[in-house]
Amino acid sequence: MIYTRFLSSHLPEPEQAVARWAKELAAGGLLLLEEVDSISTEVAAFDEHLKIASEVLAQYGSELFVGARLATSRWSDVTRWGQFTDIKDIKKEMFQCLEIQFENWLNS
Fold it and tell me: Mind listing the pLDDT tens digit for each residue in 7-43?
């Protein structure tokens, strides 16, 4: 199993990295990528943080919200090892927790 969490957004060519990781899997192995399509918030400071993070990543040829890009990429050489599954149910809850943590950090 290979698992990454918010790693692909830091790579200038994430599709190539995913293809390489998939080739390293043993038969029946799992490649789990946790990335986001977008984040929306009503917290101004968190929204500003997201804008700054996105700009910094863009300077290095990367993108913060790489999830949609990876989900729509053609994976003809990768899919022979398995299938891609989109897990959207946890995304909203996960970012609500992150938003609460950010608010607590600001208020401490």
Answer: 999 999 999 999 888 888 888 777 888 888 899 999 9
Rounded to whole angstroms, how far apart are CA atoms 11 and 28?
Answer: 26
- SS3 readout for the chain: CEEEECCHHHCCCHHHHHHHHHHHCCCCCCEEEECCCCCCCCCHHHHHHHHHHHHHHHHCCCCCCCHHHHHCCCCCCCHHHCCCCCCCHHHHHHHHHHHHHHHHHHHC
- What is the C-alpha to C-alpha distance for residues 45 and 106, in angstroms, rounded to an integer? 8
Which tokens sit at 63? Answer: 């993108």
Residues 6+ apart with CB under 8 A from 63: 9, 54, 57, 69
Q: What is the pLDDT of residues 72-88, one digit of tens each?
A: 776 655 554 444 555 55
